[in-house]
Hints:
The protein is an alpha+beta fold. It has one domain: Arc Repressor Mutant, subunit A (Orthogonal Bundle). It is built from three helices and five strands. The chain has a three-stranded antiparallel beta sheet with strand order 2-3-4. The relative contact order is 0.22.
Amino acid sequence: MSGIYRKHTNLESIAVGDEWVVLHLGQMTITKLHGLVSFIWSLLENGSGETLADIVRAVDRHYDLPDHAAEADVRALLGELIGLGLLEYRKPGTKGVKKNA
């Protein structure tokens, strides 16, 4: 069973054409997302979270790629979004991300 990727809770985002503009309220940063990462962000926009397998499957279908063809690129982009503080990863069995008081 795979963990869940979801948007950080302290964000506001808006779609502008095929791109997303993301404001991280805690860091006071603005990030513009385009291309593949914009498509991935749109999958996560509803807030429920997605597994890596779900995201890869959606990317493969959207871009008409063979099964699992986009996995390495998706993993790398998810890692970058986590590094920017825009995404959270929750392992199976964890109830939430621990937050500082």
